[in-house]
Amino acid sequence: MDLYRFIRDIPDFPQKGVIFKDITPLLKDPEAFRETINRLIERLEGMDFDYIVVPEARGFIFGAPIAYEMRKGFIPVRKPGKLPYRTRKAGYTLEYGQAELEIHEDALHPGAKVVLLDDVLATGGTIKAIAGLIEELGGSVAKMLFLIELKFLGARKALEAYSVDSLMSY
Predict the structure, then answer these.
(1) Which residues pair with 104 in a beta bridge?
(2) pLDDT at residue number 18
(3) How far apart are CA 36 and CA 70, in angstroms?
(4) Which DSSP category does 48 fall into?
(5) Is 85 in contact with 63 (CB distance < 8 Å)?
(6) 97-104 vs 87-94, strand pairing mode
(7) Does the predicted TM-score (pTM) go above 0.70?
């Protein structure tokens, strides 16, 4: 199945000059969504890891069914003020601004191996900040996995210390 045909370009969103890769056509098609989940799982088969760690919000859409199917723990990373327990925080730069994310300070045990999963790899700021939080908590990143990679933004250079994989690239 050609998953590219389910990705829609939205010009000037969320701001002028940005071409947003809209995944909602993929999500609303049951076969395309199922195929996407299965292909992401295939990229993780045979790997040794404990948790799927995902940032809100679109990462949750993919991370939860994959964690369920692979019998792995699911760890959400959220915007400040959304997690109810004590947290660790990391700031980062987006391709069009600044942001912060938090993780529960007891989200994983020291030595835990995690897969970081998100829908789009753009500049790498979000996922690198999350990797820093994982390492600060004593875990390690086994792999970074994305549905879409925007190669022209050069995130792999910033993430060269990690194993990075994506299903689709632009």
Answers:
(1) 87
(2) 87
(3) 15
(4) -
(5) no
(6) antiparallel
(7) yes
| Nearest of 28, 26, 24 to residue 40 by alpha carbon | 26
Catalytic positions: 58, 95
Amino acid 39: pLDDT: 98
Q: What is the pLDDT of residues 30-56, one digit of tens each?
A: 999 999 999 999 999 999 999 999 999
Q: Which residues face 145 on adjacent strands?
A: 117, 165
Per domain, the residue ranges of the chain are 47-169
Q: What are phi and psi of 96, to 5 degrees?
A: -140, 35
Q: Which two tokens stand for residue 110?
A: 């020291």
Thinking of the domain 47-169, which architecture would CATH place it in? 3-Layer(aba) Sandwich (3.40)
Max CA distance (Å), the chain: 43
The amino acid at residue 97 is G
Distance between CA atoms of residues 165 and 8, nearest Å: 21
